[in-house]
Amino acid sequence: MNILGIETSCDETAASVVRDGQRILSSVVASSLKEHSKYGGIIPEIASRRQIELISIVVTEALEKAKLDLKSIDAIAVTKQPGLIGSLLVGISFARALSFAAKKPLIEVDHIKAHLYANFLTTGEDAIGPKPKLPAIGLVVSGGHSSLFYIKDFLHYKLLGQTRDDAIGEAFDKIARILDLGYPGGPVIDRLARTGQNNDIHFNCADLPNSDDFSFSGIKTAVLYHIHDRKNNAAQQIPKIAYAFQDSVVTVLVNKCIAVCKRKKVSTLLIGGGVAANSTLRQRLIQKANEEKINAFFPGLPLCLDNAAMIAGLGFHLFRNNALKLKS
Ligand code: KG4
Ligand code: ZN
């Protein structure tokens, strides 16, 4: 079964064809990120205008790369929420029109849950190797979300905890902005932190014991005050600041994920979202999970970021479930 996925929740315009919820036949992502970077964050109006221009081109390219035409598509899956309202509208309107014109069923998919589904996708070359088993604990860490789920199966995700204030990616982005490192901040902080290992700077990240929630606004403010207090000196300290911030937030994420897996007696941990590309998070979580006999899975780097393959992949299961319901 071939599902065409469409994703336009933030600055990306993405389309993909996925076979049987697993094999990526094509995945096209066009980003307007460069047009936003000079403003230090995403400008919704610029994002949705670019998406209107790009959507038809991107969907056509995804079909061409998959070597399929619309007739061979079984259903169209589109991101329903959450995201920028104008951007979501472009994808949903396009998908609805296409579904009507081509007489293909339309499936609406949740973007956050789809980030975790990215762990089940293969490109062909990576088909060998252990695949995640459910139930699992899922951690979504992105520019807009930091959430923990209990995933019973692809249709049942239970939210266990989420950030009470800033999303983790937002904290990376705001700190990079104040340090004049550009947007998005995650990749550059990740890179700079590699040369900043130190014992003289420490920032505390709230770990909210007895709760599965997160809080990142306190550490973000502590970093901002540290930078303001040092003014010109802060520039020399940038790698150390990056390391100290990243070290504390990664420690909280790792400890919380492992604690939840143990409490729920679940031995599979799925990570997803843009911050899942962070090299320290990947390395420390995999190491700690190994020690605790938990199997931790991260998607390949392109699948951590926003893409339409994860929408098509999860869409396959929702479609199949609807079809089964109609039959019975
Ligand atoms: O999932 P995503 O592409 O978009 C949302 O759904 O929000 O995530 C984007 C976020 C940005 O905040 C970006 O700074 C962060 O992911 N990010 C990273 C890294 N690569 C991207 N954060 C930390 N380390 C990275 N290597
Ligand atoms: Zn996302």
Could you please describe the fold and organization of this structure?
With 328 residues, this protein is of the alpha/beta class. Helix content is 45%, strand content 20%. It has helices spanning 33-37, 44-65, 85-102, 111-117, 168-178, 185-193, 217-230, 238-264, 279-291, 301-304, 309-327, and strands at residues 2-7, 12-19, 23-31, 75-81, 106-110, 136-141, 146-153, 156-162, 268-272, 295-297. The protein has a 5-stranded mixed β-sheet with strand order 3-2-1-4-5, sandwiched between helices. A 5-stranded mixed β-sheet has the order 8-7-6-9-10. The mean pLDDT is 94.
Question: Mean pLDDT across all residues, rounded?
Answer: 94
Strand order of the largest sheet: 3-2-1-4-5
Strand content: 15-25%
What small molecules does the structure contain?
Answer: 5'-O-[(R)-(carboxyoxy)(hydroxy)phosphoryl]adenosine, zinc ion
Radius of gyration equals: 20 Å
